[in-house]
Amino acid sequence: MKEPRGLLKFRVTGSKFQIIILASLCLAFGGARGASAQGRARARAKGHGSVVVTERGRAHTLNLSKQIDAAHIEDASVLFLTRRGGFVYLVLTVCGLSRFPPGDRQCGAGIECNLVWLKLDGRWRALDSKSERYESCWAPITSEEGPKVVGKLLTLVYEDLRENLRHEVTYDDDSPERGLKSETRPLPEQNR
User: Fold this and answer.
1) Among residues 177, 60, 164, which one has the least CA distance to residue 118?
2) Which of 67, 66, 61 shows the shortest CA–CA distance to 45?
């Protein structure tokens, strides 16, 4: 029988070293995505202020117009989706246009991005929410890296250049009910 081209072949001989290498390769190429919701939930923009989150084969439309600063959503991503105690905890990044339709006036090509935490009931109705704007043409707010996820922890550092403040936001998926935690401190003098 002819084998399909392009497949990697591994021969497991029982060596602990070889098994560790194989497990590492699986992790590196997306074989295990348990900590991240990206493998089991997807988000897409729907109109000006809504996103559709698809999880377990079901699509849920969420109106985020009160949690976001974009005039029109262009991109949305699920960072965490956790079910606990009858609730659904959802963390999303949502980015879109500062002005809609875009134009050649102030912020006509600008971007607004928010990190959004939602506590939803079993029917996906929002019971609580928190939002952090981390990119903005209007404010001016900027982040060098955006949200970073390592395992079950999220960190986000952004600077509010108008207020001369640095914000450090954290989220722990082991305690999703705590939501986003934010600390604020003055920007160092060299950044002003």
Assistant:
1) 177
2) 61
Within the chain, what is the greatest distance between any pair of CA atoms?
70
Give the range among 17-26, 30-39, 81-90, 178-187 with minimum mean pLDDT: 17-26
3-state DSSP of the chain? CCCCCCCCCCCCCCCHHHHHHHHHHHHHCCCCCCCCHHHCEEEEEECCCEEEEEECCEEEEEECCCCCCCCEEEEEEEEEEEEECCEEEEEEEEEEECCCCCCCCCCCCCEEEEEEEEEECCCCCEEEEEEEEEEECCCCEECCCCCEEECCEEEEEEEECCCCEEEEEEEECCCHHHCCEEEEEECCHHHC
Give me the sign of the Cα torsion angle 71, 54, 121, 180: negative
Q: Which of 104, 103, 169, 105 is nearest to 131 (CA)?
A: 169
Query: Hey, what's the torsion of the CAs at 162, 93, 127, 129, to 10 degrees?
Result: -20
Displacement of CA 8 from its chain's centroid (Å): 32
11-33 pLDDT, tens digit each:
333 433 333 333 332 333 333 23
Give the whole-angstrom CA distance, residue 30 versus residue 28: 6
Give the residue extent of every domain in the chain: 35-191
Instruction: Write out pLDDT tens, residues 92-109.
Output: 999 999 999 888 888 988
